[in-house]
Design goal:
By secondary structure, the chain is α+β, with helices and mostly antiparallel strands. The protein is 47% helix and 17% strand. The strands form 2 sheets. It has an 8-stranded antiparallel beta barrel with strand order 1-4-5-6-7-8-9-11. Strand 4 and strand 5 form a beta hairpin. Helix 8 crosses helix 10. The relative contact order is 0.09.
Length: 330
C-alpha cells in the first residue's frame, strides 16, 4: 500500500511538472517556470523590497566589481571636470612660454645692455669736442693718386703688362667725405672723376693692346699691317680692351672705392672703425691737422702700426680735403 501511495505521489509530481513546463500563454508560446510563475502557482506574493533577502556572496562580488568600475571611472570624471573648468587662457604653460618676438626683444635688449656694459664711457677733452664739431660736414679732396690700385688690377693680364704705359698724373680721383653728428662717416668717389679715370684707362689699355699685336705680327714676319692682321683674325680692339677692363673691374669698380664707418675724435686723432669698441680701443686712426676750412690727413695707423690702406684704399698720404661750401677748385 505504501509503495502504491509512493508511486501515485511521484506520478502526481511528474504530471504537475509537465503541466508547469508545458503551459501556454494566450499567444500559444511556451511559458517557462520562472520565479514569478512558481510564486503565482504556489499562491505566494510577488517579489518586493521588503521580502528580498540579503545578497549572497556572488552578489557581493558583483557589487564589489561595480564599486571597482565606479572607482575606475572617477579619475575620468575628475579629468573631464578639470578640463571643463580649466580656462586655456589661464594655462600656466601657455602663459609661461614666451613668443618669438619676446625672445628677439630680450636678445636685442640683452645685446644692447651688454654692449653698454662692456664699452666704458669715453671721456673727451674740450679740445676733442671742438675738433669733432669742426670736422662735421662734407669735405672734398684734391686729386688722389690711384696708380697703385690700377697697376695691381691689371696684373692678371701678364702678357699685356710690358706694353702698358700710364701717366701717373691721370691715374687720380677725387673723393668726398661726409661726417654726420650721429658718429657716422662715409667716403665716396666723386662720379665725374671716376668716369674720367676709366676713360683714360681704356685709352691706355687700347694703346697697350695695339703694341702687343705689332710685336706679334713682327715676330711672325708677316707682310701685313696690324689693322690688316686684326681684320683677318676677326679681332676687335674695342671688344678686346673691354674684356681686359672687365676682368679688372673688381678692383676698379666704383663700389670698391666706397667706405662707411664710425668715427670720433680722441686725443686729437680721427679714429675710424666699423664698431664702437674699435673706436674706444683706437684700432684705426688718422693723425690730422685742421686749419680753417682745410682738413689734412697726415698718417694712418692700424693697431699702433702705420698702415698703407687708409679707409680701405691703396692710396698715398697725405690727403688734403676742403670743406665743400668753401671749395673753389675745379
Amino acid at each position: 500500500m505504501k509503495k502504491l501511495t509512493k508511486k501515485c505521489f511521484c506520478a502526481f509530481i511528474f504530471i504537475f511538472m509537465t503541466l508547469a513546463l508545458g503551459s501556454c500563454s494566450d499567444e500559444g508560446n511556451v511559458r517557462y517556470a520562472d520565479e514569478l510563475f512558481v510564486r503565482e502557482l504556489c499562491g505566494l506574493p510577488p517579489v518586493t523590497e521588503e521580502n528580498v533577502e540579503e545578497p549572497t556572496e556572488p552578489g557581493e562580488t558583483g557589487e564589489a566589481t561595480q564599486e571597482t568600475e565606479e572607482s575606475t571611472s572617477e579619475p575620468e570624471e575628475t579629468m573631464e571636470s578639470s578640463a571643463e573648468t580649466e580656462d586655456p587662457s589661464e594655462s600656466t604653460v601657455e602663459t609661461a612660454e614666451p613668443s618669438e618676438s619676446t625672445f628677439e626683444t630680450e636678445e636685442t635688449s640683452g645685446n644692447a645692455s651688454q654692449e653698454t656694459e662692456t664699452i666704458p664711457e669715453i671721456e673727451k677733452t674740450p679740445g676733442d669736442l671742438e675738433l669733432k664739431n669742426r670736422i662735421l660736414g662734407s669735405w672734398r679732396s684734391e686729386p688722389i693718386s690711384v696708380e697703385a690700385m690700377v697697376k695691381e688690377a691689371v696684373q692678371g693680364e701678364k702678357w699685356l703688362v710690358p706694353y702698358l704705359a700710364f701717366d701717373a698724373e691721370k691715374l687720380t680721383v677725387r673723393v668726398t667725405m661726409d661726417f654726420s653728428d650721429d658718429g657716422k662717416a662715409t667716403l665716396n668717389v666723386e662720379e665725374k672723376s671716376y668716369q674720367d679715370l676709366m676713360a683714360y684707362i681704356k685709352e691706355a689699355v687700347s694703346d697697350g693692346v695695339l703694341k702687343y699685336f705689332e710685336s706679334y705680327v713682327k715676330a711672325l714676319d708677316l707682310k701685313l699691317s696690324v689693322k690688316q692682321y686684326l681684320k683677318m683674325a676677326g679681332i676687335s680692339i674695342d671688344s678686346y680692351v673691354a674684356d681686359v677692363i672687365e676682368k679688372s673691374a673688381g678692383d676698379l669698380s666704383i663700389e670698391s672705392m666706397r667706405y662707411q664707418c664710425l668715427f670720433d675724435v680722441l686725443d686729437g686723432k680721427l679714429c675710424v672703425s666699423g664698431t664702437a669698441m674699435g673706436i674706444y680701443l683706437r684700432e684705426c686712426y688718422f693723425e690730422m691737422e685742421i686749419l680753417d676750412s682745410q682738413l689734412e690727413l697726415l698718417q694712418y695707423f692700424e693697431d699702433g702700426k702705420e698702415g698703407n690702406r687708409p679707409l680701405g684704399l691703396d692710396v698715398r698720404l697725405p690727403i688734403m680735403l676742403h670743406k665743400v661750401p668753401t671749395w673753389k677748385g675745379n
